[in-house]
Amino acid sequence: MLRILIDRTGRTRHIILVHRTGNRLLDKAALEMAQRADPFPPISEDDPRQELEFMVPVAFALH
């Protein structure tokens, strides 16, 4: 599970790994995935918030 904080323009301010997988490489891959998604869509002009925080569940399937 990742916690991602973005600013009004959609740029990532913080990415926090909330729940670790127990595997260092998978944890790193989850963080890198969120970094590659930057920038996110900007916060709507009608929305007064300066930042937006959201939780992103991440699941890996190893075959």
Automatic annotation (TrEMBL):
**Compartment list:** Membrane
List each copy of the TonB C-terminal domain by range.
1-63
Cellular component terms per the entry's GO annotation = membrane
Look up and give the membrane topology term. Answer: Single-pass membrane protein
> Which InterPro entries has this protein been placed in?
TonB/TolA_C (IPR006260), TonB_C (IPR037682)
Q: Which Pfam families match?
A: TonB_C
GO BP term, pick one:
transmembrane transport
- What does the UniProt keyword field contain? Membrane, Transmembrane, Transmembrane helix
> Under what name is this protein listed?
TonB C-terminal domain-containing protein
Q: What is the lineage of its organism?
A: unclassified sequences, metagenomes, ecological metagenomes
